Amino acid sequence: MNKTVRQALIDEIHYPIPVGKVDNICVKRGLNAEDDFTKEMSETKEYKGALSDCLFSLLQAVNFSESDKSVGNLTDKQRELILSWVNSLRKEIGEPLVDDGKPRVRILH
User: Which residues form the domain of 24?
Assistant: First the structure.
């Protein structure tokens, strides 16, 4: 059984991500989501970039809680681990690193 690039990305993420989002990322990275996933494909800059983008999208997802039930909530530790993975992939393919998007205060002297 062959696995597609789309399915490989979804499988690596471990969190629910819309298939349409994965497909959009594949297009932006120059990948065909229907292509067979191979060892060679897994080592390409395009695939690693797409994986990084899919992971980063988890950090940008809307989180909400209602009646003691959470949807899409990641712990701070999970967010840190995902961001670390994102930046590891980006560094490997020579792309700029990203931050967690949290507001920062800079004190200038």
Answer: 5-92
Sign of CA dihedral 32, 37, 41, 43: positive
Structure tokens at 34: 């229907």
Answer yes or no: is 79 within a domain. yes
Per residue in 14-66, pLDDT tens?
888 899 999 999 999 999 999 999 999 999 999 999 999 999 998 887 655 55
CA dihedral of residues 21, 34, 42, 18 (deg, nearest 10): 20
Rounded-to-integer distance, Cα 83 and Cα 97, Å: 9
Main-chain dihedrals φ then ψ at residue 64, nearest 5 degrees: -150, 155
Domains contained in the chain, number: 1
| Residue 90 structure tokens | 């980006």
In which residue are the tokens 């696995």 written? 3
